[in-house]
Write a structure and sequence with these properties.
The structure holds 2 protein chains of 2 kinds. By secondary structure, chain A is mainly alpha-helical. Chain A has 17 helices and no strands. Chain A is extended, with a radius of gyration of 41 Å. In chain B, strands 18-17-14-19-20-21 form a 6-stranded mixed sheet, sandwiched between helices. The chains are: A mainly alpha, B alpha/beta.
Chain lengths: 462, 441
């Protein structure tokens, strides 16, 4: 894909390898010109305000020479010191347009290089780290070269419509395009444009399929690796504790830090607890005891159950690589052919005209030959696929029983628990009521005041 | 459902299409856009057809369904594809309670699964807090090969696990006991009753029928008359542990609330009682009596107590009267009732409850966690909060002092405890009760 794009753009002679350098230099030229002009206006203005006249040639020349040339701030391309104020202003208007024109052309060249650079960098990244974002990024970046080239053509054409001609801008770039969309499928399939589209799509498709093949086996490998690290870290931590208890000196090596306790969340937490609770000996004891108990638990588990290690690593979950590769090739081929066929049917005006049989006015209209006509079919056809998927999944979902069915015993138990709590609440409320009524009856006999109530009153006397 | 990656493809397709339309009608960009869109949706119906999520069955097995807080648990998850189609990419996340810690392994797997086959993976968890927990549900995510579409399903197969309160205090106590070579004696308190104890109390003259092994030959030789040794008789006590689970007991640091300490104290007390063949019962109450485990020495008694304490949740208010009425109805023998309550309810009902308790011949004492000692240290507050905290603390202390004075009139002592001295206090109380011979049976 990258090579095809390179070739397309090379035809337009854009790969000037000094383009990025030129762009940077042009930007600096523009900046230095602006700086020079602004500083010059300031100095001239101040001088005029103080002396009451435009500064003479000697002052202008001296300023330009001493201040700007000495400090390399003179505009690029100016050889000698400019001594005349009017000359400075006249020169500025010429220079600024020249630099701007140059910048405009260089910007596009620079953007081509920038996109190509980003695309290649992301592609290389995707080789090392099999992630979708890198593949997608490389694809979009490389395609953006053509988008920018088309944008440049459009700007030129638009300016041309207004009679504006930019001398530095050059001609429009020749970008892959059809004058009329081919009505023959094979002509469509073997055209240069189609080759690049196919190459681009194939890159995306194959990369995504490769990432799938990689990611379907990788978690199991990672799992095994993680388990190894965890068990090693656990063993090291237990040994270290034993050594500390024996009163030996324990050194923490860089190795043990990276692959050991720190890499293992459970141990990390245990250590943190130990650190946080350094004032509390019991907390330390807990953390140490947790690690040791875990070690004993794991040892017993691995000894008593021969499958325990395989289950912890989920070794059996790794799919067969030959099947994955075979299905990847078949799946890709099927998708590839389907996409090409559907796209041709959607885009070809002949298919459109044959199916819809439009009136002669439309049949012969120029609009039929425009790319926008694709929308007429594209939108309904594209929506058809999610609709079909929705219908299928709706039928499939009927088989799903999301709500768990409680067994009869579970239901009974749940009911019993609820009933028990309600009974308890009712009983407690009834007893409270009884106690209240007894108290109310007792209240009517002041001479029989309870000594406990009296004690309470005495206690709460201010 | 379209994934985030799918949306990026849509964005790129729209970008190329609109560029193709807008920038002079370029067929290359239009075709590229069309390819991307068609490529995105073309496999959608096939994916919907194959990803029949009902064909996935998840089976979870755990080593045990009841364990102590801090214990480890192995969870084995088996995923079966019961359908006739393969699943290209399946991600399975088995969820576990938030407060638990994943000790070894991973609780998720991503792989491909063939028809009729299964995948098994396992991981080890550490249960951190007591209570009833559910391991699960299992979340199954199916993706297509390119990761552009997915279906998600939560399989609600949950495994209920009961986590008992922590056993670490008992372990610690046992360890100390072993170190000191403490014998697990049949009673250890002193009584004035002469009997078959271990503590020497004096001599008496030999009477026919006394066992020869009790004769002290040295003293008999000195006195010129046969004397036998006498020992203090040892008896057991009956204790009822009243655990208040009102809402205010839930205050404090997580895992270190007043209720958690009260529960740990109850576990420790029951264990000590069982070790020495004393009868220790437990009553968990708030506005109702949630559970009552009568005093017993049955082998399963400890598990009954643990189960009742495991379920305790801090909510509601404390109805001391209902609780003590229930206990008195169930208990015939004289009992030492140890209240583990923060005394934050109105004192009237508390005094009434104590009155009922003492009137029925029981003894009582209150071990009361003092709220502010369980909260964040005052040093961590700003100046305003500090003043407020101190004011509240003083007011609470004053209130508590008054309650203590009121209860003292009836011979009931109140011990204010914090996180550091909660457990030592309960051990001390038990030892003193044994020594004083409170509530013997």
């Amino acid at each position: 894909m990258a090579f095809l794009i390179y070739r397309v753009m090379d035809f337009n002679d854009v790969w000037h390898w000094n383009a990025p350098y030129d762009f940077v230099v042009t930007v600096f030229r523009l900046l230095s010109l602006l700086f020079f002009f602004i500083s010059f206006i300031l100095v001239t203005g101040l001088s005029t305000a103080i002396t009451g006249t435009v500064p003479n040639e000697l002052i202008v020349g001296l300023y330009n020479t001493i201040t700007l040339r000495t400090w390399y701030m003179q505009p690029y391309g100016v050889s000698g010191p400019i001594t005349n104020v009017n000359e400075v202003f006249a020169r500025f208007s010429v220079d600024i347009f020249e630099v701007l024109n140059s910048l405009l052309e260089n910007t596009f060249l620079f953007l081509y290089f920038l996109c190509a650079g980003i695309g290649v960098a992301l592609f290389l990244q995707s080789l090392v780290r099999m992630e979708h974002k890198f593949v997608g990024g490389a694809f979009v970046s490389l395609q953006m070269i053509l988008v920018i080239a088309v944008l440049r053509n459009t700007i030129l054409a638009t300016l041309g419509d207004f009679g504006i001609v930019l001398p530095f801008f050059g001609d429009e770039h020749a970008i892959l395009d059809y004058a009329v969309f081919p009505s023959n499928f094979f002509e469509f399939l073997f055209s240069n444009l189609q080759l690049l589209v196919l190459a681009s799509f194939a890159y995306l498709e194959l990369s995504y399929q490769m990432i799938y093949s990689y990611s379907v086996g990788k978690p199991v490998e990672d799992r095994e690796e993680t388990l190894k690290k965890q068990l090693l870290a656990l063993r090291q931590a237990t040994r270290k504790q034993d050594a500390i208890e024996r009163g030996e000196k324990v050194s923490i090596t860089a190795m043990s830090r990276s692959s050991g306790a720190i890499a293992f969340s459970f141990l990390r937490e245990a250590i943190e607890r130990k650190v946080v609770g350094s004032q509390d000996a019991l907390e330390n004891l807990d953390a140490v005891s947790d690690v040791r108990r875990l070690q004993i638990f794991v040892d017993e588990l691995l000894q008593s159950d021969s499958r325990a290690r395989d289950e912890l690593t989920a070794k059996a979950a790794a799919p067969s690589s030959s099947y994955v590769i075979g299905s990847t090739i078949l799946g890709s081929a099927f998708r590839f052919l389907t996409v090409i066929a559907i796209s041709f049917l959607l885009m070809s005006p002949s298919a459109f005209l044959a199916i819809l049989n439009p009136p002669m006015g439309i049949y012969n209209s120029i609009e039929v030959l425009q790319p926008e006509i694709v929308l007429l079919y594209l939108v309904p056809v594209v929506l058809l696929f999610p609709f079909a998927a929705m219908v299928i999944s709706w039928f499939s979902k009927r088989e799903v029983l999301d709500e768990p069915k409680l067994t009869k015993d579970e239901k009974e138990e749940l009911k019993l628990r609820k009933k028990e709590l309600d009974d308890k609440k009712k009983q407690a409320a009834r007893r409270r009521k009884e106690r209240e009524s007894v108290r109310r009856r007792m209240k009517g006999k002041p001479e029989e005041k309870d000594e406990w109530d009296k004690a309470l009153e005495d206690t709460y006397k201010p | 459902m379209i994934t985030q990656r799918g949306f990026v493809v849509i964005f790129a397709a729209v970008l190329f299409l609109t560029s193709g339309f807008a920038l002079g009608g370029n067929f290359y960009l239009t075709t590229l856009g069309v390819y991307l869109i068609i490529g995105l949706v073309v496999s959608l119906p096939f994916f919907a057809l194959t990803a029949n999520i009902a064909g996935i069955e998840v089976d979870r097995q755990v080593d045990k369904v009841k364990l102590f807080s801090g214990d480890f648990l192995r969870v084995r998850v088996t995923i079966r594809n019961t359908s006739r189609r393969h699943f290209d990419f399946i991600e399975v996340h088995d969820q576990y309670p938030e407060t638990w810690i994943l000790a070894i392994g991973e609780n998720f797997i991503a792989s491909r699964i063939e028809p009729g086959s299964s995948i098994t993976f396992s991981y080890i968890l550490q249960a951190r807090m007591r209570g009833r927990y559910n391991v699960g549900p299992t979340e199954v995510v199916m993706r297509d090969r390119l990761g552009l579409h997915y279906y998600k399903r939560s399989l609600k197969a949950e495994t209920e696990i009961l986590v008992y309160p922590t056993w670490k205090d008992v372990r610690r106590l046992d360890a100390i006991g072993k170190q000191r070579q403490l014998g697990l004696m049949f009673g250890s308190h002193r009584t004035k009753i002469v009997g078959m104890g271990t503590d020497f109390t004096g001599f008496r003259e030999y009477v026919p029928g006394d066992a020869f092994r009790l004769i002290d030959w040295k003293t008999s030789a000195k006195r010129g008359d046969m004397v036998v040794k006498q020992y203090e008789q040892e008896k057991n006590v009956q204790i009822m542990c009243m655990v208040d689970t009102s809402g205010s007991m839930g205050n404090g640091y997580p895992e270190n609330t007043k209720l958690e300490y009260a529960i740990r104290a109850a576990v420790l007390l029951t264990h000590m009682g069982l070790e020495r063949k004393d009868l220790v019962g437990t009553c968990v109450f708030s506005e109702v009596v949630h559970s009552f485990v009568p005093p017993s020495t049955h082998p399963n008694h400890m598990y009954d107590v643990l189960e009742s304490l495991a379920m305790a949740e801090p909510k509601g208010w404390s109805d001391y009267e209902s609780a003590i009425t229930h206990v008195i109805e169930q208990t015939r023998k004289r009992t030492l009732v140890i209240w583990l309550t923060d005394l934050e309810e109105s004192p009237g009902p508390l005094l009434n409850a104590m009155k009922t308790l003492v009137a029925n011949g029981h003894k009582a004492m209150v071990i009361s966690p003092f709220g502010p000692w369980f909260e964040a240290p005052v040093g961590q507050f700003g100046p305003v909060e500090k003043v407020l905290a101190e004011a509240v603390s003083e007011e609470l202390w004053e209130r508590r002092r008054k309650i203590a004075r009121a209860l003292a009139r009836f011979g009931i002592s109140v011990v204010n405890v914090g996180p550091e001295d909660f457990l030592p206090t309960i051990i001390k109380t038990y030892e003193q009760a044994k020594q004083r011979g409170v509530a013997l049976f």
